[in-house]
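Bug report (template v2)

What were you trying to do?
Predict the complex of my protein with zinc ion.

What happened?
Run completed; filing so the output is reviewed.

Input:
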Amino acid sequence: MKPQIKPKKDISYGSGFPHVRLRRLRKNQAIRDLFQETRIFPSDFIYPIFVEDQIREPKKIGTMEEIKRLPLSRIINEIESLLQTGLKSIILFGVSSQKDEYASSAYSQKGIVQKAIKEIRSNFGEKIVIITDVCMCQYTTHGHCGIVKNKIIDNDLSNHVLSKIAESHALAGADIVAPSAMMDGQISFIRDWLDIKGYSDTLILSYSAKFASPLYNPFRDFADSTPKFGDRKTYQMPFTNINEAIREIDSDISEGADMIMIKPAIPYLDLINQVRDFIRLPICAYSVSGEYALIKAASEQGWINETEVMVEFLTSIKRAGADMIITYYAKKIASLLKNELFYKEN
Ligand code: PBG
Ligand code: ZN
């Protein structure tokens, strides 16, 4: 058939088969490498670190054995080994034995996270980006992310406490605070408070679209933060609602977030991709404990190859539009990329 004259916008696509053969682009690994559209780097990834008070040795927890809760004394070693893989960012979580109704150990300068921040900062200076999770669930007796009054999570009271937690992290030396309680207005409360207290340089990564997901279960066992009554559905997002998620993101941007987070990652690639087109600030995706667990468990059964699935999942999150990814696989993927094992394996 005679090739048709196409409108200008289509010219680059040629006239179809047989002139166009897409398999040419896949001829061998070197050609495929040249045409690779999405690339991942160690610096795309953020590693979650859990520091626990009152332990002396790293503690394995069933659901995420390879991650381990660390005592303060092991933090420096851990960061050293991370830096060697090319990772440059961590997100710190505290696991606290001192729980009360008001999460007071969450904002004490003697708290485990505050101590860890100071220790890391004094040893590594600006070589590492320290992000801190700002929430209450590991520090409250009831295990909810906010302050509870008559079995109800009090939004504005919680915002005051979250602001104090963020301030205590900034004072200790955190670069980025990441509020994860899903209270309305938490970003503007925290931004105001940090500015008043002299921390206008501290960035805010907002857990903007955090869905109420059963994929957090391994984390809750791991961090001892399961709610003692009810669930998190009055503050975390329903997984059915994408417009509402975009409103959450819009609102956090207007309140002063420097970057936004979407969490979990794999089931919400549609959302990542939709907002990518219209927001002009960085998108962080959190590939959560349950996503990690799915790969781990299936690979332990011998049903899938852990490394290959990990690479596919993490690359897909970036392809969808995420600029950075929090993952329990950060160490593994970074060392793989550093040694270029991923390319050799193919
Ligand atoms: C605490 C918090 C949770 C996660 C991160 N911060 C758990 C929750 O909201 O119940 C989940 C992370 C994961 O599953 O890896 N607010
Ligand atoms: Zn929480």
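What did the reviewer find?
The pocket of PBG (ligand 1) is lined by residues 133, 135, 137, 145, 180, 216, 219-220, 225, 232, 288-289 (CB under 6 Å). The chain has twelve helices and eleven strands.
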